[in-house]
């Protein structure tokens, strides 16, 4: 069947959802034989408001393109008072790279010894602290406008963001040689909260931005940091000054074999070459619905009627996408306004994921029924008929 049919997209979506169910939070194994590029050199945008915590940028990996892409550093409002951000990091383990996802917790844990800068210099966090329900910013490592935010202090940090090591992964050939300390191990045992929905949206927006792929920007992303999540076009967003090291794309010796036939898993041949879904939770994370194939039954009037039916079906499905997205956006906004705890946020995100999956399954079934209905009628023109008047008796 043609690879542009929606049921292929739904199948891919289902596979992604299954894979995400065990990797929503924690250690994510990806079969990669080479580490991410060096961390680019960039400046930090000013903190937008009190209570926002800096989350450093990092290289994520897109298996569809066998390529790393840059997730810009950004300021994120802490989900709860007293929580700090432990950045995610790449580590070479069991002959492949694992990504350890970042999380919120009362203490900053181990993040691979990676020196991300701006207070994250390989161990702990020197960028600020909570005091009586308010977050105080260390101006020596953070860009804070004191006319907007007055709860600041100055503590000089020996290692600063202009002299840090640009290596972006732990272990392996050329990686940072660091192991968790007792303090790190203790922080690992406290309550963790996964990235907020707005952070996942930030990652997804980066993934779909072609200019953020390492093979395109050569390790120097045009958007290196943003004042708020997914605000890539904000005037306060900053580009990288330079790559952290000369970029050299390496072949992924661990990449799975790809079948380049249309519609096969492992290819990216959906409609108009759009990206396949990554962290699919909301309808907006899905690629646009493909244009239906033109029917060809041999009957022009029938084909025209079928074409109109297909277009109407696609229009209804697009409306379903929009309505569900609007509904989920309203729920996310309410959670943000109510300062919902992490457990409630995660439950909502899981429900949104199920809703999106159910909608895609329904659309797939609708498309299959439409295609079955539009199958050409049996062609009887080539069936042999006895010539008129030839009334030979059966042998």
Alpha plus pi helix count: 6
Overall structural class, as computed from helix and strand content, comes to alpha+beta
The biggest sheet amounts to: 4 strands, mixed
Radius of gyration: 26 Å
Describe this structure in words.
- By secondary structure, the chain is an alpha+beta fold.
- The protein has two domains: 32-226, no CATH class; 274-363, no CATH class.
- Helices cover 28% and strands 15% of the residues.
- The protein is built from six helices and 16 strands.
- The strands form six sheets. A four-stranded mixed sheet has the order 1-8-7-15, with no helix packed on it. Strands 2-5-16 form a three-stranded mixed sheet, with no helix packed on it.
- A hairpin with a 2-residue loop joins strand 12 and strand 13.
- Helix 1 runs antiparallel to helix 6 (342-373) and helix 5 packs antiparallel against helix 6 (342-373).
- The longest helix is centred in the C-terminal third of the chain and has 39 residues, at 300-338.
- 33% of the residues are buried.
- Mean pLDDT is 78; it is low at 1-25, 257-279 and 380-395.
């Amino acid at each position: 069947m043609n690879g542009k049919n929606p049921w292929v997209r739904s199948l891919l979506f289902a596979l992604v959802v299954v894979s995400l169910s065990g990797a929503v939070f924690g250690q994510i194994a990806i079969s990669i034989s080479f580490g991410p590029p060096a961390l680019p050199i960039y400046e930090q945008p000013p903190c937008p408001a009190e209570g926002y915590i800096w989350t450093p940028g990092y290289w994520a990996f897109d298996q569809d393109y066998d390529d790393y892409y840059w997730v810009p550093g950004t300021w994120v409002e802490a989900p709860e008072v007293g929580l700090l951000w432990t950045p995610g990091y790449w580590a070479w383990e069991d002959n492949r790279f694992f990504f350890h996802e970042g999380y919120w917790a009362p203490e900053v844990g181990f993040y691979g010894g990676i020196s991300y800068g701006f207070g994250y210099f390989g161990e702990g966090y020197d960028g600020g602290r909570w005091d009586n329900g308010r977050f105080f910013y260390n101006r020596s490592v953070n860009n804070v406008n004191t006319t907007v935010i007055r709860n600041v202090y100055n503590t000089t940090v020996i290692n600063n963001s202009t002299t840090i090591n640009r290596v972006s992964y732990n272990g392996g050939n050329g990686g940072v040689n660091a192991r968790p300390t007792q303090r790190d191990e203790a922080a690992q045992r406290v309550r963790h909260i996964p990235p907020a929905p707005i952070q996942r949206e930030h990652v997804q927006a980066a993934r779909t931005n072609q200019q953020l792929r390492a093979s395109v920007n050569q390790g120097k992303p045009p958007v290196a940091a943003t004042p708020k999540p997914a605000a890539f076009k904000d005037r306060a967003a900053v580009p990288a000054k330079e790559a952290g090291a000369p970029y050299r794309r390496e072949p992924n010796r661990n990449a799975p074999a790809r079948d380049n036939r249309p519609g096969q898993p492992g290819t990216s041949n959906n409609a108009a070459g759009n990206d396949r879904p990554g962290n699919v939770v909301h309808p907006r994370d899905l690629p646009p619905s493909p244009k239906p194939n033109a029917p060809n039954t041999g009957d022009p009037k029938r084909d025209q009627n079928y074409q109109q039916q297909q277009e109407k079906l696609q229009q209804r499905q697009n409306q379903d996408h929009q309505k569900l997205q609007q509904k989920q956006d309203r729920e996310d906004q309410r959670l943000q306004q109510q300062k919902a705890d992490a457990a409630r946020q995660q439950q909502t995100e899981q429900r949104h994921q199920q809703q999106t999956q159910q909608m895609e399954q329904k659309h797939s079934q609708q498309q299959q029924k439409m295609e079955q209905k539009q199958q050409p009628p049996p062609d009887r023109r080539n069936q042999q008929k006895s010539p008129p008047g030839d009334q030979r008796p059966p042998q």
